[in-house]
Here is the input.
Amino acid sequence: MPNKDSDISLKYLNLLSEKHPSIQAASTAIINLTALLQLPKGTEHFLSDVHGEHEAFEHVVRNGAGSIWRKIEEMFGDALTKPERRNLATLIYYPELKGPLMLRSVADRDEWSRLTLIRLVRFCRSLTAKYRRETVRGFLHSHVADTIEELLYDQQGVESKTAYYQSQIDTIVATGSTLTFITTLAELIQRLAVARLHIIGDIYDRGPGAHIILDSLMQYHQVDIQWGNHDILWMGAAAGSEACIANVIRFSLRYGNMETLENGYGISMLPLASFALETYQDDPCELFIPKLPKDHNFTSQEIRLLAQMQKAITIIQFKLESQVIKRRPHYLMNDRLLLDQIDYARGVITLGGVEHPLRDTLFPTIDPAAPDALTPQEQSVMDKLLQSFLNSRKLQQHTRFLFANGSLYLVHDGNLLYHGCVAMNEDGEFRAFNVDGESFRGRTFLDRVDRLARQGYFDIDNPAQKQYGMDVMWFLWCAPQSPLFGKEKMATFERAFIADKATHVEQRNPYYSLRDTPQSARKILAEFGLDPDRGCIINGHVPVKVGKGESPIKANGRLIVIDGGFSRAYQKETGIAGYTLISNSRYLLLAAHQPFESTHKAVSEELDIDTATEVIATYPRRMLIGDTDRGREIQGQIDELHALLHAYREGLIKEHRLD
Ligand SMILES: O=P(O)(O)OC[C@H]1O[C@](O)(COP(=O)(O)O)[C@@H](O)[C@@H]1O
Ligand SMILES: [Mn+2]
Here is the structure.
C-alpha cells in the first residue's frame, strides 16, 4: 500500500476522481492495472534507414519480421502442407489483396472460408495470451468486435459452446461476411504480433515511397521515431528552410525519384524545370544525369531535363548553404564555403591549399564577385518552391506527426535510441559545441538541438528564432557535429565537380571508431542516465558491411547498428536488405532480411522475405510489463489511485457516482 501522506495534491486527486468517480471505480482500476503489470512485455520491433522502400517496409511490418511465419510453422507444421502454410501467411500479410483473389479462385468457397476462418481464429487466439481482453477488443471495429471476441475467447471443447461457435463460423460464411472477418482477423494478428515499432531514422530519400511509409506509420498503433538526417532535412524543408528545400529537391532529382515530391506532396517542379531549361539549355549537365533504376521509364528528353534541373538546384543549394554558414559562424563550417574558393576564370578550385580542376566550369548564374548571391530568377524559383512546400497539406501533416511522435533520441526501457552519433573527440570525450560563450556537449547538446529544431518549425511568432531553428535543421542534416550526420563534411560538391576521389572521402567523427569500445558505449549510456552494464545503444545511419564480415553488434553488445540496407542503393555494400531488431519478453533478436521483390509478387506468388534471425540476448526470466518504462508509469497510476481511494475513505473527497 502506498504511504498515506503521499505528496499527491488534493487538487490533483479531485481531478482524478472525475475519471474514477467512486470507491468501486477506483478499486476496479487498481485491480486491472495491477494485473496488467503481470502480463509479458509486448514485442517491439526496431527498424532504421528504410529510405523510401515502402513495399519492403510494409512487408516486414506485416509479416512481423518473419515471426508470423515461424508461428505458422509451429502451429500448422503438421496439419498443413508448405503451400497451404504459404497461402495462409500471404493471407495474413495482405488480407485485403489475397482474400478476394482466393475467394475467386477456390473450388469450394464456403468450405475454404470455414477452414480459413477457423485457422485464423486459432492463430489469433494464440497471440492474445499476452494481452488483456479489453485491449484486444480495443483493436476491433465495433461492428465485428462482439463476434470476434466470442470466437477468440470461446471455451475450447466445452460441449454446450461447440454448436454456438460453429454456428458463428457458418453464419459469417452464409451472410457473405467472410472477407470482412478474414481481414479483421489478419489485421488483428499483425497488431498482436508487434506491440510497438521504433523507427530509428532515415525514412526519406533514395526510394520512391517515403510518403507512403509516413501514411502507414500515422495509422500504426504504437510507433516512435528518432529523426534521421534525411528526415530532419524534409522537416526543415516543410518548415520553410530554403537550404533544406534545395537539398531535398537535389536529392530527389539525383535518384530521379520525384514520386514523394510530386505525387506524395504535390510540390510543383514547373518553376524549376522552366528555369533549368532556359538557363542550362546549351549545357549537357553530364555530371548531373540521375542515378536511375534499371527498370526506369524516363525518356532521354526527360533524363536530360532532370539533369538540367539537378544542376540548377545544386548551384542554388550551394549558394543558400554558403549564406547559412556565413550567418552562423559558430557552426565552424567556413571550410565549406566552396563557391568562394573557385577561380572562375581558370575553372579550378583550391581546397586545403591544393588546386583541383573542375569537371564542369559552366556556371551561368554565378557572379564571381558575389558567388553566393541568388540571381533574381533563382530567387523567384525558390519563392515559388517555398510556397509549394508550405502549402502542401500532406507534407505538413507528416512533419507534425514526426515532431509529435519523434525526437532526436529516445531513452526507452533502459536502452538509448538515436540515428547517428554523439559527437566525440579522439580522446573519447564528448565534443563541445560552443555558442555565445556557452558550451554544450553530450546529452545537453542533443536536448538543445532537439528543441531548436522544434522552434524552427513552430516558432512562427518569432521570425529570427524560427530562422535560427531552421538553420539548426540544416545543421543537423550535414554539419560535422550533427548527431544525425557525424562526418567532417558532406562531399556533394567534390563528388560532382572534382575528379580526385581523395576529396570525396567523408571522414567520420571519432565516435565511429570509438563505438566499438565498450567504455565509450558505457560512457554514453551513463551520460543519458542508463545502466552501462545492461543498457544498449541502438543506431542506424551507417550501413553495416555484413558481406565483408562486419558485425552489427559492437562494444560487447552495448551498441547495435541496425542499418542493414533496406535502401537498394546500399544493398551492395551491406550484402543484405535491412535488419529488424526484435525485443520480446524472452529475447533480443536480430533479423537480417534478404532483398524483397515486390508486393505484387508477394501476393500473387506468395513470396515472403527470407529472414535469418539470431538471438543476441536471452533475458534471465520472462520480462513483464511491470519490468518496463510503461510498467513504471502504470505503477505510478496505481499509487495515485490508492491515494484517491484513501481520500474517498477519509472523507476528503466525495464520491460522484454510487456504484
Ligand atoms: O550517394 P548518395 O546517395 O548521394 O549519398 C551520399 C551522401 O549521403 C550521405 O551518406 C548521407 O546520407 P545517409 O545518411 O543516408 O548516409 C552523405 O554522407 C553522402 O554525402
Ligand atoms: Mn542517415
Residues 202, 206, 229-230, 254, 487, 490-492, 506, 541, 569 surround 1,6-di-O-phosphono-beta-D-fructofuranose (ligand 1) (CB under 6 Å). The chain has a mean pLDDT of 95. The chain is about 50% helix and 10% strand.
